[in-house]
């Protein structure tokens, strides 16, 4: 799975907003806290606002804050708001992609991969990230030393 810079920045900014609670935080403050290019972040925050995950207010007392409690916003919600569906194959949902002959099983692999991603990304929410307390099912995966090894580049 590859996460775009936009998703990475969105997740980091959302974690900052989770810590801030209901207090508005400016885009400049978010950008500085997470070392994100400010103009890039403004666009990302706009996407999150249009998706109903973030609210904003203009003016001297303005800024951004989460539209609902951090425990009700999953990482999957943010990823979908920024980049669309969690897993696509040639721009299609895996259940809409068919293969013939010996490649027929690939569709099931893509669906299993999406289910695996969902099992983590829909379970972990912004409160978990902000508090540094991941669900046990996720923490167990990170305790396996092989999880920290990068795969072959070829």
TrEMBL record:
Record carries keyword Zinc-finger: no
Keywords: DNA-binding
Annotated Gene3D superfamilies: Winged helix-like DNA-binding domain superfamily/Winged helix DNA-binding domain
Tree of life domain: Bacteria
Pfam family, one: Rrf2
Alphabetical list of NCBIfam families matching this protein: rrf2_super
Protein name per Swiss-Prot or TrEMBL: RrF2 family transcriptional regulator
Organism encoding this protein: Actinomadura sediminis
């Amino acid at each position: 799975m590859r996460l775009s810079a936009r998703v990475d920045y969105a997740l980091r900014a959302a974690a900052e907003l989770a810590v801030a609670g209901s207090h508005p935080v400016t885009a400049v403050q978010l950008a500085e806290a997470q070392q994100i290019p400010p103009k890039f972040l403004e666009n990302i925050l706009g996407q999150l606002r249009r998706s109903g995950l973030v609210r904003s207010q203009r003016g001297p007392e303005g800024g951004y804050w989460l539209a609902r409690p951090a425990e009700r916003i999953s990482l999957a919600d943010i990823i979908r708001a920024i980049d669309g569906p969690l897993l696509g194959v040639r721009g299609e949902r895996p259940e809409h992609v068919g293969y013939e002959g010996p490649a027929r099983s690939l569709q099931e692999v893509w669906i299993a991969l999406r289910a695996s991603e969902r099992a983590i990304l829909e379970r972990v929410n912004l409160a978990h990230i902000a508090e540094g307390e991941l669900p046990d099912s996720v923490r167990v995966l990170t305790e396996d030393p092989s999880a920290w090894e990068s795969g072959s580049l070829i």
